[in-house]
Amino acid sequence: MDKNQLLREIPSIDRLLQRSETKVLIKKASFDLVTHILRSIIGEYRNLVLKQQDPELTPLTEEKVIGMLIKQISQFIEMNLKQVINGTGTVLHTNLGRAFFSEEMKEDFFKILSNYSNLEMDLTTGKRGSRYSHLVEKIKFLTGAEDALVVNNNAAAVLLVLSSIAKGKEVIVSRGELVEIGGAFRIPDVMEQSGATLVDVGTTNKTHLRDYEENIRDETGALLKVHTSNYKIVGFTKDVSLEELVNLSKAKNLPVIEDLGSGVLIDLEKYGLAHEPTVQESVKSGADIITFSGDKLLGGPQAGIIIGKKKWIDKMKNNPLTRAFRIDKMTVSSLEMILSYYLQEDSIMSKIPSLEMLTINYKTLEIKAKNLKDLIEKKCGDSVIITTQEDYSKVGGGSLPLEKLKTEIVVIDFQNKAISAVEKQLREARIPIIPRIHKDSMILDPRTIKERDFAYIASTLKDTLIDK
Ligand SMILES: *Cc1c(COP(=O)(O)O)cnc(C)c1O
Question: What's the mean pLDDT in 354-371?
Answer without folding.
Answer: 96
